[in-house]
Amino acid sequence: MQAYKISEEGELISVPLKDIELRSDDVVVIVEDNKKNIFIWKGINAPVRKKFISARSAWKLRGELGPLYKVVSIDEGEEPEDFLNLIKSLNISVKTTPPAPAEEKPKVEAPPLPAPKPAPPKPRRRPAVALPPKVEKPPEIKKPAKVEVKKPVEVKVEKPPEVKPVSPSPVEEIDVRSILSMLEGLDTPPEYSRELLIVGTRIYALGEVRTKLFGKEKVKLSVEILDALPEGPYLAEGYIPRVIIKNDQVLAVELLKKTRATVEEIKKEIRKGLETYTSLIRKLEKEE
Fold first, then answer.
1. What are the sequence ranges of the domains in the chain?
2. Of the four, 21, 202, 224, 272, which is 20 to 30 A from 232 by CA?
3. Residue/partner pairs of 160-163 with CB below 8 Å, 24 or more apart
4. pLDDT category, 171, cuts 50, 70, 90?
5. Are 70 and 37 in contact (CB under 8 A)?
6. Which of 19, 71, 87, 93 is nearest to 231 (CA)?
7. Is 77 exposed, middle or buried (0-12, 13-18, 19+ CB in 10 A)?
8. CATH architecture of structural domain 2-95
């Protein structure tokens, strides 16, 4: 179990658990190794810059601890139950500041409406004088004109050629379990260990469970999907890729992590040390 505070420069400062306090104007990072959680507790009055820096520093810490750790961001007043149980078991004191009450705005009374103006008097109408009705002439009846009826013109419409649907080429669905069974049958170099597996757009953390049955060792892989991946490019330093290809398709990419030096590298370091020791002996002999 580890605890950190965020400096103004964005660095993680390790602090003993007994000295950790949750204050409203501060940001605290707590690492829970049992459940592999990295908690970021952000006080309600903490500076915005420190809150932003804490997220970036927590992801950097996750890169050092391993991909199985999860970064959990928590705001003051929205603490989940598992986090409250954790700080209670660690006897971490909480010194938070309640938010200031909102100021009541004075009520502004609306001005009284002006009195309605009296309507102007209506003008007097003159008495209507009846006029004699007009006598209209009857309309002239015109003879109907002759209309020539033309025969309809036949228009031939050619049918478009039938287009047969093209059946799509069969695409093999990617199954993570089938890929794991393929990996269990592959040997891993002694100086490397399985750690990450990329399938499609997802990244999985790999683990090996070794059991012995009738004197033979059997290796079974465990897989866990990684959520909340950090944005931006990821440099796989210290890894070598192993590409899984089937039916002219790339099914997965396995990242093997180097765990120890090879025999050739050890020999190289021994030769370098012997050369340094020999040159030192010759120098001492010349001085004598």
1. 2-95, 187-227+235-259
2. 224
3. none
4. very low
5. yes
6. 71
7. exposed
8. 3-Layer(aba) Sandwich (3.40)
